[in-house]
Design goal:
The complex is a heterodimer. By secondary structure, chain A is mostly helical. Chain A has one domain. Chain A has 7 helices and no strands. The mean pLDDT of chain A is 86. By secondary structure, chain B is of the alpha+beta class. Chain B folds into 2 domains: 101 residues; 127 residues, 2-Layer Sandwich (Heat Shock Protein 90). In chain B, strands 1-2-3-5-4 form a 5-stranded mixed β-sheet. In chain B, α5 packs antiparallel against α6. The chains are: A mainly alpha, B alpha+beta. At the A-B interface, α5, α6 and α7 of A face α1 of B.
Chain lengths: 226, 258
Amino acid sequence: MSFHFFISNLLEPISYGLCGLALLYKQRSIQLKWKILLVYYVVAVALQLKAAYAETNIGLYSLLSSVTSLSLGTYFYYTLFTPWKRRLVILFCAVQIGYNIIANVLLPRGQVFDSTAYVILSCGIVLMAFLYMHQILTNVTEESLALNFDFWFVSSQLFYHLGSFLIFLTYGYLTEKILTSNLYSYENRIYLSQLWRVHNVLLFLSSLFISAGILWTSFRRRSPSL
Amino acid sequence: MDILSQEITIIVVASSFFLLVAVGIIVLFLVYQKRQLKYILEKKELSNQFQRELLNTRLEAQEETMNKLSTELHDNIGQLLSSSKFLIGVAGRASHSLPENLQMAEETISKAIQEVRALSKSLNTEWLEKFNLLENLQAESDRIRISKVLQVTLRHPATIDMPTDRQMILFRIVQEALQNAIKHGHASNIAIEVTQAENRLQVSVADDGNGFDIHNTSLHGVGITTIRHRAKLLGGIASWTSSSHGTSVSIQLPTYGN
């Protein structure tokens, strides 16, 4: 197994697995929203492992975008407590699922990465992260934000989805460009996979951030002297 | 190949920029939230300071009134009673033997003079400043005991380590609690206990009176509010337990030693 294969195919399941393990560590005291995310990470690992060895993984990535929007939507639904913000979360999930049904079931397109689905996902999550920050600023508490695991999680989501936004936006277009023109070659496929590797590294960094957040908040809460 | 390579490089550079924006947003958010928290805490502290000053002013005004009352009791009523006693004495000497009812009147006036002096003393701030809380509590207990209607027991350590002004406020709290026990509780026994542990002082006043419903706020008169405010002024708390067998008020506060 080469290093490139590891970064391209296995870093994604490892990243989701790391988040799942971190949540499992926190499990004793976790609320329903975290339990839902724990299930999400288990499903994500399974899908990613299947995608890593599958001949074509486009369908699995589309399914993952639906699962992600539903899971993170549920998380934000329970985290945000203003009705209009919750309505926006529901709208986001409906748009994402609606689009995925149209693009994959009703009007299936070619076998290329579905950039639109991931752009909708990233935009929705970035928007919800901003809604969360607005909520924090309008309800300031005396507790340090570093002890608030929601803050760690939302920040990592913002970091990942804003950082990967352009990759999601252009990956489908670039794949189609290579496939439909005379640019198709081994070198170009390598170039394209390098772009996906950048995405994988961002995903891994965000999962490290989530794990660090879980460990930090658990450690600080257990050490009253600190 | 070159075009694709260029495009991918541009995407990676632009993504890095987006990543920096994300980090910037998180950092800005943290800084802004910290500033907002600082502002809220400052506002809260200012409000607390205002409350403390307001309470201090009220207490100063109360102390001044008590001083005036003490002077009036001592100089006016005390003098009137002394004159009455003197006149009875003169009448007795003129008639060589004092009738029994006049003798009783003389004794009652002597007792009244004693009580007025004690009361005047307990209201006088200058007097309070000279003595410590424990001596004042002893004097107050003796004063109540003289009436022979109530039994007051006082338990306290040999000394307490607390600034005089704080001792004075604490003494006023105990006076208020005693007043409540006598006036509203119709108690026959009152136990005052002072305990000190490290930097905390606890004073409890327990009576065997009627008790009251501590959850019924309409019964919370000025006395309870005053006790609570004064305890807060000293950085402490006042709490009540009550049943049909009596009431106990406990005041816990830091000593901030001399």
